[in-house]
Amino acid sequence: MFWKSLHKALGTKLTFSTAFHPQTDGQSERVIQTLEDLLHACVLDFAESWDSKLPLVEFTYNNSYQTSIEMAPHEALYGMKCRSPIHWDDVGERTEIGPDIIEKTSDVRPRAQLKDKPRKTIAEAIK
């Protein structure tokens, strides 16, 4: 089988799963739960326009520390930490360009940090 041969040559482990039965080693389930929590927080916070905030959710996920790789996915892919709009105030003139982005990014991150709390607690925290 192609995939088994490829992963054997790469020295990685391949665990198959099927639609509606993704049980493997728990990685898929954990990622799905994390993304579900991020989306849930986004919908609660931006009820009317949550879909327009999806790039911010993606940005938050890609720049959040992952224990499995001991760094953020962005850092793993590019070899350096992401300089988010929050850090632009260090640069000077760029702060004039992105205050709206900084505000939106700052609003999303605390919501993402609530992901480990029960959904009832999240709803109460946002009120």
UniProtKB/TrEMBL annotation:
Residues 1-81 form the Integrase catalytic domain. GO terms for molecular function: nucleic acid binding. GO terms for biological process: DNA integration. This is Integrase catalytic domain-containing protein. It comes from Dorcoceras hygrometricum.
